[in-house]
């Protein structure tokens, strides 16, 4: 091969390898970014990534085309990677105006989103060029994108415009909500706190319902293990279920005397029920994961075949991936099929498992 052909060959290779790369801004719960990186590494092999917010947000390059990467991630939903968006434009600018101009010019070219329902999701680092809050940046962008006649919405958008304004670089992407794993900005699902709400734990069940599509309204009799003070119990009662709540601790006074509630003030190791008495079992004990799994599997005789279980698993270890695998294996052994496993936004140092008994 002469020199010119070698050069052309290299350019060709270069083009091909660019096709086989895509960049994403990825988010996990605080402190869990290394595990989200590990999940991607297991899926894609080696990984190049840079932290944008320590322990939480990173930008990574995957050695596949964007389409392939999307397909892989969506087919095997990760546990710790809460949210991601594809990077279509990277901007290094000296001034905010230059950066904004670049974002505007790029998005105005994405004519396929014209006239559709769009959510603009902005996040930034503390030392970003943009010094005001993210909402002000969103308003500024909305104003600049007027020619596209977009309908702005927070819920159920057709497209999401994502902008992460980091210290030196701004990352921009336009994607469908399902490709981002969540249609909330950074996967941070917000629920309105209600008057008289018993505990924030209720948000975990609300988020699990949304994340996994659990049809809580369709169940009749639930067993709630580690129920006090009663956030989950109140949620299930509101959905019209009959609830048996087990906890040595006190339930919230607002639940006293509820006609659909039976409270058993005992340790869950000391209770027994009829076979197949329940069609839903929930457990949020914030306790040793192995002990929790042992206790729950010991009570599974009371769950009907086809019944559902929602369980939080505390990650009291430096090796959460191995622990999750071990706990899932314990449940699978006990005829529970894992339908979903996810560290929800409202989970702290834990994950939520959604399982069905077969
Ligand atoms: C995080 S709180 C549960 C919050 C509850 N899901 C809510 O929505 O309000 C954990 C509860 O598990 C209970 N618990 C811990 N070990 C238990 C056991 N062995 N048997 C029954 N309850 C237990 C504790 O008493 C505590 O009330």
From TrEMBL:
- Which CDD domains does the entry link to? AdoMet_MTases
* The keyword Nucleus is assigned to this record: no
Write out the GO biological process terms. Answer: methylation
Organism domain of life: Bacteria
Q: Which Pfam families match?
A: FtsJ
Concerning Gene3D superfamilies, the annotation shows: Vaccinia Virus protein VP39
InterPro entries registered for this protein in UniProt? RNA_MeTrfase_FtsJ_dom (IPR002877), SAM-dependent_MTases_sf (IPR029063)
**Record keywords, A-Z:** Methyltransferase, Transferase
What is an example of a GO molecular function annotated in this UniProt entry?
Answer: methyltransferase activity
Every Ribosomal RNA methyltransferase FtsJ domain range? 199-287
Q: Would the keyword Cell membrane turn up in this protein's UniProt record?
A: no
Q: What is this protein called?
A: SAM-dependent methyltransferase
This chain's source organism reads Paenibacillus glucanolyticus
